[in-house]
From TrEMBL:
Source organism per UniProt: Coprinellus micaceus (Glistening ink-cap mushroom)
SUPFAM superfamilies: Concanavalin A-like lectins/glucanases
UniProt keyword annotation of Signal present: yes
GO molecular function: cellulose 1,4-beta-cellobiosidase activity
Name of the protein this chain belongs to: Glucanase
Catalytic activity field: Hydrolysis of (1->4)-beta-D-glucosidic linkages in cellulose and cellotetraose, releasing cellobiose from the non-reducing ends of the chains
Transmembrane segments: none
Entry's EC annotation: 3.2.1.-
Amino acid sequence: MLRSPLLVSLSLAAASLAQQVGDYATEAHPRLPWQECTSGGCTTKSSGSVTLDANWRWVHVTGNYTNCYTGNAWNSTVCTSNSQCASRCALDGANYQETYGITTSGDALTLKFVTQGQNKNVGSRVYLMNSESKYQMFNLLNKEFTFDVDVSKLPCGLNGALYFVQMDEDGGLSKYPGNKAGAKYGTGYCDSQCPRDIKYINGEANVDGWTAHPSDVNAGAGRYGTCCGEMDIWEANSISTAYTPHPCKTENDGGQQRCTGQECNTPDRYGGLCDPDGCDFNPFRQGDRTYYGNGRTVDTTKKMTVVTQFITNNNSTTGTLVEIRRLYVQDGKVIPNSKTNFPGLLDPTDSITEKFCNDQKRAFGDHPSFQIQGGLSHMGRSLSKGHVLVLSIWADYAANMLWLDSTYPVDADPIKPGIARGTCPSNSGNPRTLEIDHPDAQVIFSNIKFGDIGSTYSGTPITLPQVPLPPGARGAV
């Protein structure tokens, strides 16, 4: 899906990314233990921690306080070329709580939308670490990934996201000589949107062709983007949710690759290395308007447990990915996933399979980029290489998050299947308005578990009632 994270707005600590390491602030990763489970029980990984993405960090000239990037522009005196900027600028440590609103308590991580201290920070993105210098890698095939989440303070237009991307374990430290910071300082990000707002890619700055964003005072776009396979486990607020695989035909079956021009899906959104749309399962978009939200079957006013299972054709970690299942646990009850509810148009399916994706693209009239990029089987090959866990809170300058929680495209008939994605007004989600009206918004992730199918959750199974066809929706074509 669309992703345009909001960056830090600081006077001395401008949001940016560099490859040298500064020494003005000590980098201390907040601890975040998680559990690995088998049928015999779960073991706590007490060494787990998180690191802040480098794009949010202060970058300055090595040895002094001169900014290399301020607002949405590079310091043209310091950064006259991509390689020179990397060699002259230093990436520094982060004050997680005071500057970025990032805190941990036990197994819980809280990400605040706006943090107003000496300066103002908006949004954040962090990665789960295995050690001080390496990301925790996950192979999700024939496994399930489970976590608790509280989205009660996420209104229309915000996204508390948990997802996996095929980043390098060390953040590119060993692969690119210009990168002296590595995973410890949150380098090496990539995703299926091939983002061009990343300021350093592959150990070099993204100065060449950099253009300031017309409405985001902290962001811009350079000549290069950075692509890789992406598995969105959770994109959600209190109104809507979706989970979505995004395959990429980059190097190493979806591994991180720098792109330029059409490789980055520009100008043709569907002509690049990655699938930007994915094959999404959003209960509201699938026709079940009573499943997720305030006081609904999955009640977003309360904490919930989210379980995602990755099924292979031979029930092994080396098999072909054939299905991605979802279920929830809330108040001790195991809640099966919602079923597609467009009788005569889509079968009543409750998981992501190749058939579901083919049927959905046809029924909704969506571009078959998911299939063109290799579908579930190629997504599985990417997952088998190992993915990094990403947790973030963000607002959307590109489309106001309407693709998640409102009518999208806004000029389309909301009665048409696939257009309505949530109950948010089509004029909601403006990031600047959200900063003013909802500065206290936050998401809390906790109780992360990873392990064998069926080993990470418990509860009493329930049966969902049959839901009516959405009012006015056409069930056949």
